[in-house]
Amino acid sequence: MAEVSTYRLLDGKSASKAIRGRIAQEAAEVKTERARAPHLAAVLVGSDGASRTYVDAKVKACETAGFRSTLIELGADTTEDELLALVHRLNNDPELDGFIVQLPLPVHIDEEKVTLAIDPRKDVDGFHPENLGRMVLGLPGFLPATPAGIVELLRHYGVRTSGMHCVVVGRSNIVGTPMSILMSRNSEPGNCTVTVTHSRTRDLAAITRQADILIPAIGRPEFITADMVKEGAIVVDVGIHRIEEPSRKRGFRLVGDVKFDEVAPKCSWISPVPGGVGPMTITSLLLNTLKAAKG
Questions:
Q1: For residues 273 and 216, what is the distance between their CA atoms, to the nearest angstrom?
Q2: Does the fold of domain 144-277 match that of domain 34-119?
Q3: 34-119: which CATH topology?
Q4: What pLDDT does residue 5 have?
């Protein structure tokens, strides 16, 4: 393949703005039909800084899209039983269309038990086994927000994926595994031959260099370097990390799982960090909540 001299950005901010405009129109229609705007609640347990930032962004996105939002903040000493009781109340709240319990939770709370307690019909994060099973079978349901957001990002920019080799780095239940399923489905974006790599993969770089589409979701800052990416690849960076940098006004900089400056010149398309996948994750959450509101 000839060397690629320029790359195009998979700009999640721009894409999400366009998609949220359509969401706002549909939300207004829902409000007219049933005299109530779509309603999303977020539960935040403890004081994790990254979780707080993410939840605040979700609340702001709801407001701009014409949704009603509710933020429920609980102390880090909240017991598992207390959180499960809250989940039960939210499941049975007729004024609430969907809700999320922000992860990670304090170590004394079983995240799996909480996820299983959420009503699948209100599971707008798409983490409940029923929704994951529906995704595997291609049935209607709520898709996990980050993988679905990546698909929407590729669709927005008209990136054709059929027949390509997609390599996903990471196999988490939240991103890596569902991402591999969505990219292999008979759809566009989709119809890829997918390889899932992980911590036990031998000669990872040899596999990532085969990727037409590379999706790193491993939680290791700037792990993917130029020698791991082939010319002309499409790279979607799921990671986001704070790197201390005292010389900057904020005292840190944000980076992804990809070493952007050296990888980008080899790419045909690449998502930035910040401003790539993050805004699309929140947009997917709004899409799921809108779907729940429409019943």
A1: 12
A2: yes
A3: Rossmann fold (3.40.50)
A4: 54
